[in-house]
Known about the structure:
This protein is mainly alpha-helical. It has ten helices and no strands.
Amino acid sequence: MCRFFLKLASYITEPAKMSKDLELVNKVKSGNTAMFYDLVNIYQKQVVNTCYSFVNHKEDAEDVAQEVFVEVYRSINKFREESSFSTWLYRLSVNKSLDFIRARNRQKRGSGLLSFWSGGELERLNVVSLDQPGEVLESEERRTILLAAINKLPERQKVAITLSKLEELSQEEVAEVMQTSVSSVESLLVRAKKRLRILLYGFFSEKYER
């Protein structure tokens, strides 16, 4: 019942929030740069958290978030209000995070978090329930392991599972961010979960048996 009322409250407050965002965006477009910092203050935490879900490092996430807001400032006149400002910001955050990961992989080919799992250990890990992220990520160790496995997914599967399970967006919101259909998101999530269960086979069950 409590969840119902929280959801209902979000439906009531969302239009007002979108209207406020649009007001700030239009003021920035008109040359009121001071309003841009209001947008930064409102969305800084969301952007940093989204970037962290992809890059898995606090300082890197903050650096990428800074690039996101620089891009927002440069490109705000291109925002055509075809989606909410929050959705547009998610899209920029995802794209900048993926750009960062590609650049990092080019610089450190074969190194990074996944290099910890040598000799096929990663292939033996398993997720107990991806539909209950709180359980899976109840410790920093499990979070690190899961993020390492997510990094092994194809890019679009990685984006879909990160936005859905770590950012907790609805499938409709994920589809809007990814500029695709809900059915495509559903298919990506099914394939991502299947691949993660293969990658993570056995690990969590072994943990719980101890």
